[in-house]
Design brief:
Layout: H1 2-33, H2 35-38, E1 42-44, E2 50-53, H3 93-108, E3 130-131, H4 133-147, H5 151-161, E4 162-163, E5 174-176, H6 177-186
Antiparallel strand pairs: 1-2, 3-5, 4-5
Helix pairs in contact: 4-5, 5-6
Length: about 190
């Protein structure tokens, strides 16, 4: 009986510490040191209206916008509550059909040449807000034509939007699709 009382007391104490005090401290420190990130890294317009998060992809399908990496989330694209990959292997017939359909959709817009993997395959989370610079540059003719501007203007916007490697050595250069599209809307 003594061991049961000790176990229950320890359970209550650890629940309070690990389930209440520690998360409150970490949240407080996050809000103090990184307030924008702790609130979701939302991008707002001049009126303060939230347009999206720089951390979660947004579904763009209009030809005048750059298209993001495909989403693997169920129900609807970029659903943060359903984050996760498809878990389908590279020989899975359904997966191959999905990738083939995505490639066909890109080809139907006039894209020629090699299509980067990030335009045909979803990321592991299904929420990735970034594409590679190659994927962005591949979409320049479609976006420029739909906006009625020269390719050079859109290329400059892409080049301006390229983010380098994290800490200078991790990952690859990338372009945040939402931020690029918002920049083009301001032009």
């Amino acid at each position: 009986m003594k061991d049961i009382k000790s176990a229950i007391l320890l359970f209550i104490i650890l629940t309070i510490i690990c389930g209440g005090i520690y998360p409150a401290i970490v949240t407080g420190v996050a809000y103090a040191l990184f307030p924008n990130q702790a609130k979701g890294s939302f991008i707002t317009d001049k009126a303060g209206k939230e347009l999206g998060s720089s951390l979660i992809g947004q579904p763009f399908s209009d030809p005048k916008y750059f298209w993001p990496r495909p989403s693997a989330t169920s129900d609807f694209g970029f659903n943060a509550m359903a984050s996760g990959g498809s878990n389908a292997g590279p020989t899975n017939p359904d997966y191959l059909k999905t990738v083939g359909d995505r490639v066909k959709a890109l080809r139907d817009t006039g894209v020629t040449g090699k299509i980067p993997a990030d335009l045909a395959q979803a990321s592991a989370s299904g929420l990735d807000p970034h594409i590679t610079p190659d994927s962005a540059l591949l979409q320049v003719p479609r976006v420029a034509k739909a906006r009625g501007v020269s390719n050079e203007i859109v290329i400059k916007a892409v080049e301006h939007s390229i983010e380098g490697r994290q800490l200078g050595f991790m990952g690859t250069p990338r372009v945040n699709v939402l931020e690029l599209n918002l920049m083009l809307d301001k032009l």
